[in-house]
Each structure stands twice: as structure tokens, then as C-alpha cells.
Amino acid sequence: MERLLDAEWFKLRKRMMTWVLALILVGLVVLLYSILWSTSSRVARFGEENRFTGIDLRQALFLPGAVPYSLQIVGTFGVILAVILAAGSIGSEYAWGTVRLVATAASGRIRWLSAKLLIVIGLTAVGTLLAIAAALTYSTLIAAYYGDLSAGFLSATFVRDQAEAYGRTLFVIMPYLTLSFAMAVVFRSTLAGVGSGMGVAFAEPLIDGLMNAAGRPWDKVPNYLLNTNRQVILLQNKLPEVLPRFGGGRGELDGALTPPEAGLVLALYTVAFIAIAFFVFRRRDISSGQ
Q: Which H or E run includes 225?
């Protein structure tokens, strides 16, 4: 298994796609921070009902808010990048015609598929850390510029909270990642995997809104889909109120499942998608290279 992991790590590390996705994620963090920093110096009041001042927004961009806000960005926009990485990692094996070679040469095709999935998950975790590093760097520059650079906020409780937030963020990405991975396996195509993952990520919030507007019994269906439960989990991450949340606030999730229930739903989806990928790949005849 170690050799398989090394091989998959080498392949994905050397692919241009992996580095491009990482740069996009870091660039997204920098872009959003730049927009909010610019906004903080241009507006007197900010947020719903103008509850916050521009100074409040600026201070929220300092170091204490860097980790939670970068995780908010990853939990919302990083899903799309994870979908592309997961689908591309397995779909490319079919496109290049290498699936027969690597699957038969490896010590068991399930081990090979497991190694590939583990490396994709590992790279997603590393990419999240890169986003955090970018936010910390930018926040340090902003705080230093205004002469408010301090590490006084660091405590065991703060570190624990951010570690838990990091885990939650990776957790909500997993259903989308495994969905795209499974669909790329089932349909032997990167495009199918990317299309499935991105389709769910973009279309489901719109469908959820229509179901909620339709009333009973439709308004209960989103509680058992991905988007609503992802937002329930992400809302557990402590984020300064002044910073905008993507995907909806607490008021829009009235009647949703509790965090443990939402976590169970997402976990079941993740396990189901992994099971589909392994079941299909194990039973498929790959002697023809397909």
C-alpha cells in the first residue's frame, strides 16, 4: 500500500492541474480579503441593517479572524476545486488508457483505488492549509499596516476551536469529493465526475430554495440533501459576525437538522459514494483498458 500511495502522490504532485487548483484557491482568498479591505475603507456602515462600521470590518480581517474566514471560503468555494481534483485524478486514467496497466500491475485494484482516493483527500487537506496560510499572511500585513499586530488572542481554547473548524471544513467537502470521484469511476470520464459534483454544488441550493418556498411536504426534503447539512456544519465554525457568510445564515436554516444529525447525513452520503465507486470498479472488466 505504501508503494501505491507513493506512486499516486508522485503523479498528482507532478500534474499541472494540482498546482493550478492550489493557486486558484490561494488567489481566491487574496481576492476576497482585498475586496473586504477595500470596502472597509470606503463605507461608513456595513452589513445587515448597517449594524457594523468600516472599522469593525477592518478589525475582523486581523489575525483572530484569519483562520475561520479562510475555512469559510474553503468550505464554500473550495468544494468546486476538490471536485475537479477528485474527478481528474481517476478520470484521467481512463482518458489516457492507463487504467488497465496500473490496476492490473498493482497488488489489487481496490488497493490502487483506495490509494488514489487517500491521496486526493490528503491533497485537499493540504490545500486547505495553504488557504489558511494565505489568510494568515494577508491578515498579518493588514494588522501591521494599522499598527495592531498582536498574538495576544492565542490560547489553548482558540487553537482547539480552529482545529475543530478545520476538521468540520474538510468533513463537509468529503461528500462532494467522493461524489465526483464515484461518478468519474462509474462513467469512466473526468467530465462526468466534474459535472456531477459541480452540478450538485450549484443546482442544489436553488432547488432547496424552491422546495422551501413550496411548503409542505417539500420544505423538509432539503434537510436530507447535501447543501443544507453542509451549511449547518459550517455554522458551527466561530466567525466574526461582520464577515459575510456564503450560503446563508442561521435564519435561513430554521427547521434544519441538528449538527450531529447533519453530520450523520453527510457521513452516510460519503460512505455511499465511496461504496459505489469501489463496487463498480471491482466488478468492471478493465481488460480492454476501459
A: none
